[in-house]
Amino acid sequence: MQEYFSTMFAEKGFFHLQGLVFAFLCVGAIMWFSYKVMVPLFKHKLHGSAFAIVIALILAWAAGMLVGPTGKKGIGDIAMFSGMALMGGAMFRDFAIMSTAYGADLRELKKAGLGGFLAMVIGTAMAFYIGAAVAWLYGYTDAVSMATIGAGAVTFIVGPVTGAALKASSDVVALSIAAGVIKSVLVMVVTPMIAKMIGLNNPGAAIVFGGAMGTTSGVAAGLAATDARLVPYGAMVATFYTGFGCLVCPSILYFTLKIFFG
């Protein structure tokens, strides 16, 4: 029996060969625990996605400590969790982002077209420059590092895209991802608390909010905790925000920093 279980958990064992299926099982278990246990425990004041992300970050840290500096795929370096590398890759990530936009009414999108566009432009620029300013305060004074961390403050997807385009160091890229994750968690936690205050109760407001905040995961979770009917509208513009950030952060916004910081 011991040999049987050892074979299942080893490299080329059952969990390794069925890695993607096991990855879905693990993520499903985390989501179930977050929604069924943690949300009621905190009296529904926080969205389940926030707990799931925190749990995932803890697991990522534990995996990094276990694997050590030789690891390249995070928790995916552990044989039985190898499917996480595929599930967490670009293909499934982009599919998940785009799927949040389904269900949006195009008539409502047209009503807030200009407002959503302006919110997207202003939101991208503000997040970028605030992130760059924080990077400068912490000693990252070259334009490449500031732009990469600033792009991370836009979203945790735009950060590494910008870092790769500008050839930023791996530690700076990691910081940009961390900045984006923190922003995502903050948006999903704070949104239900301020929804009434800012009038976030209709599709037009959700479109502008998604354009201003931009982090698709944070906006979708925050709106789900506020009013699930608003999710497609906020997520639609937030998805465009990510693409817009990938275009302007390593180009126009980077060059504005380069003028002053070389």
Helix percentage? over 70%
- Number of DSSP helices? 14
Q: What string, H for helix and E for strand, traces the elements in order?
A: HHHHHHHHHHHHHH
List segments where confidence is low: pLDDT < 50 over at least 5 consecutive residues.
1-5
**C-alpha Rg (nearest Å):** 20 Å
Q: Note the quaternary state here.
A: single chain
Number of domains: 2
- Biggest sheet overview: none
What would you call the shape? globular
Query: Hey, roughly how much beta strand do the residues contain?
Result: under 5%
Rounded to the nearest angstrom, the distance between the terminal CA atoms is 64 Å
Structural class: mainly alpha
Rounded average pLDDT: 80
- How many strand elements? 0
Layout: helices, strands, pairs:
Blueprint: H1 2-9, H2 14-17, H3 19-41, H4 48-67, H5 83-87, H6 90-99, H7 106-111, H8 113-137, H9 143-154, H10 158-166, H11 170-194, H12 203-213, H13 216-226, H14 231-261
